[in-house]
Sequence to fold (908 residues):
Amino acid sequence: MSEPRFSNALFADLYELTMAQAYWQHGWQAEATFSMFFREYPPDRGYLVYAGLEDLLNYLDEFRFEERDIEYLRASARFDDAFLDWLTDLRFTGSVRSMTEGEIFFANEPVVEVTGPIIEAQLVETYLMNQINLQTTLATKAARVMHAGRGRQMVEFAARRTQGTDAANKLARVTYLTGFAGTSNVQAAAMYGIPPVGTMAHSFITSFPSEREAFEAYVDSFPDSTTLLVDTYDTIQGTRNAIEVGLALQQRGHRLRSIRLDSGDLLALSLECRRMLDDAGLNYVDILASGGLDEYDVQALVDVGAPIAGFGVGTKLGVSADAPWTDCAYKLVEFDGRPVLKLSTGKETLAGRKQVWRVPDVSQFGLDVIVPADEVPPAADAIPLLHDVVRDGKRVGASPTLAELRQRFAESFARLPEPLKALRSPASYEVGISSTQRELQRQVRDEVVARELG
Amino acid sequence: MSEPRFSNALFADLYELTMAQAYWQHGWQAEATFSMFFREYPPDRGYLVYAGLEDLLNYLDEFRFEERDIEYLRASARFDDAFLDWLTDLRFTGSVRSMTEGEIFFANEPVVEVTGPIIEAQLVETYLMNQINLQTTLATKAARVMHAGRGRQMVEFAARRTQGTDAANKLARVTYLTGFAGTSNVQAAAMYGIPPVGTMAHSFITSFPSEREAFEAYVDSFPDSTTLLVDTYDTIQGTRNAIEVGLALQQRGHRLRSIRLDSGDLLALSLECRRMLDDAGLNYVDILASGGLDEYDVQALVDVGAPIAGFGVGTKLGVSADAPWTDCAYKLVEFDGRPVLKLSTGKETLAGRKQVWRVPDVSQFGLDVIVPADEVPPAADAIPLLHDVVRDGKRVGASPTLAELRQRFAESFARLPEPLKALRSPASYEVGISSTQRELQRQVRDEVVARELG
Fold:
């Protein structure tokens, strides 16, 4: 990676900076709280999986405008010199309450709330939204793919077709969080300590005088960890070649690991190839499948019992193809002790700092209630979903490891009621708004309407 | 940005590295050519806009495995020590032929061909595809949005909802290439020399005791460049407030620049707000519109003559919402002087190094012909689309500037026949395959079938 020329503090919409100057010139320094939430479910989603917090925390730790950033802003002739001098010394001194990464949550629930001097809480908006939206979108998609697999091994193959390198690396992280066995992306594997996985490409086969010679060359290099790609010319003939190479390998005391189908009718081919492998005594050789698969394809193959041990899932997972964006928002909900809201058509926000309580039933997922932050729990056994993660600019405790998040997600997802997990038209989970929150909302709305429209 | 722990050479699918070791151990060092192309049009696309080359060239310049990458690979216990030592010294010494960024091209045309020792040409696959796919997808979407605007000013507001920070920055670049006036993303503006643009957020308004006071504070800070967001509480009342603030500003010798509508019925509101502004003598104040818009929304508003001078386009542009991925491929087409192909069901590739010739008509877009690379032009006035950009590891000439690419794209797009630009069900452009290419294809296919399936 070439050295970045500008700091991540500059990854901000211009209006964050112009508003910052206007706040500053107006002496607007009081404490503000911004709340991030997802307004609606993307199509066919009955739950969402929260992710992106760790990158937000790293960003807040490092938040500062470097000299080259300030020089750029000064050269734009848009900003006041005294403001830019002040910006040079700015650090994030606020506090953050957030769900834990991997938390299963629902529409309209605040997932993270940032409290601090208004300029700080405002300036972090663009990066915060970008990362939490990206990682939540991809984690939610990944959970669907995992669920469709019903225990088959899932690996992530999307790096070449994600929307950029940042998305590729974050995808590897959140797919592992939701239970994938590994990623093909070596950079991400190295960054996050995820198992790197891989097979071989058609180019390897076509560079050799014959498929058989290509297979032999590859197993010579990796006698104990080879997956042979069998569809370059003809899947059945390719499987015959793989069997011969696998039997020769066995005689040398090694085991072919698997074959990969990447095109054609995966059900019919997997049945035929399984039979061929078994007939040859290679029942230990697994069949993997790949090639434009999404959770619907995986579910269909699993439902009919296709003898496929693992799936390589790429493009459609990697961009969350059926729901590539969400209607998320980061809105000011309190300023200088005063709850605030906007009334824009179809986009009214919930005023004030909030908490989300999960009232458990046997599954843990009974119902959730959104309440003002300082309110008592709605039930004795209710569990708060927002926790202090940054206080006065300092992290509260150590972050969970990715392995811990993965374990916690697996336990939590196992308890999520099945109707909510449906890939099409899932059931809807009950999210209540407490009577105190409703009353606060009514008061603030009435006050705003009287003031602005009276 | 925190310092990256691993180099971009590690941004590769694991199989690129395992295949590299197998090639190396097998003594497979001959020259290979890989070709990248897009198999099919995404929905409702009749053309594509090529982008991503500049990042590829920077990547090739910097291509190397750093010590920490090698240490990681060694620790994985997957690789041969001698191979890793060899990898430490590897640089990209090959050659690249590519279309120019901003070129309008069509399905199945090679956009870039990489020729070099097979290991080098193979190892760059993941990054090359990731960037060219991303930037081509976004540039194509951006061209559609520009086209829908029919000369209205377009600005890119997507940074918070793109799939990651890399996508946000590359989006800003390619939207500017296709004619956008600017981006809200300050980091991208600084990186690429693009005009940064912005207005104000609802949070600014709601932090003040009233909308009117918020407007006054903002114009105090930016008396000559303010766009007032008028929909926080009620768009008509907000416009009344904006008019009062605008008239007061005028008396002080300044001009309110514009107002922004961000919700509700944009046609009805723009007509009403335009009338209100004009009645108040503020005919110089423009109306901007934003809020979940895509090319279809923009086209509908422009077609009915909504008095909107400019559009802020975000999320749906930023992820290419209706077509977030493409069926692109990077395939081996020649090895050691021998044209090769794969026959996988539905994915047969065109063998050999190729050229694309554009045979012009009055519009420049007559028809394109895909031919073997060394073939003579199909017509005297035909224009080759692939050019040498890297030769033996060194760049050929300086890259065009972004401003030059923007100019060239504008001229080229103006000549693209209108039926191809239709946002729904566009006409299809004729892409021929020369008889020599067909004959080559037949020969290679016959040879492969005889060898592998005979």
Notes: Chain A has a mean pLDDT of 96. Residues 37 and 109 of chain A are 6 Å apart (CA to CA). Chain A touches chain B through 122 residues (CB under 8 Å). The longest strand of chain A covers residues 31-38.
